[in-house]
Design brief:
mainly alpha; two-stranded antiparallel sheet; 6 helices; 56% helix; elongated
């Protein structure tokens, strides 16, 4: 039952990955668990809107780029991205702080756009070759 729940519940997978990594970013070794304790947020409790001093701490961290869009202090990242054939199993997941996750995502987007540009250039070269040599293009057509 636990395995099925882990496969179908991304929140549980995220929490178990965080626990396995002991709340430490796997790239820069920032202790995200200590940051969560400092702010006063609990991973097990449902996210509530922070008030008072917690709110000021959150604002402090947000200004330094340490908090994500949904108010989280860490992200669960795929080591081998899903678009490159990775899985959702825990051995392919790691805990990253928000700045490291943004950097990894930016690098992945760069790799994917470079691959797309190469593919587009290849298609454009084929079209130009067909325009220059119509007799070859006619033989290639089914």
């Amino acid at each position: 039952m636990q395995e099925f729940r882990e496969e179908t519940d991304p929140g549980l997978r995220r929490y178990l990955t965080f626990e396995r990594d002991k709340g430490v970013c796997q790239l820069c070794s920032r202790d995200v668990g200590a940051l969560e304790k400092w702010v006063g947020l609990s991973l097990k409790a449902p996210r509530e809107r922070p008030y008072g001093f917690e709110r000021r701490k959150m604002r402090f961290l947000r200004r330094r780029g340490l908090i994500g869009a949904q108010g989280q202090l860490y992200d669960c990242d795929h080591i081998v991205p899903r678009v490159e054939g990775g899985t959702d199993k825990r051995d392919n997941l790691r805990t990253l702080c928000v700045p490291c996750h943004k950097r990894v995502t930016r690098e992945l987007a760069g790799r994917r756009s470079k691959r797309a540009r190469t593919r587009a250039d290849d298609i454009e070269a084929r079209i130009q070759a067909r325009q220059r040599f119509p007799s070859i293009a006619e033989r290639d057509l089914p």
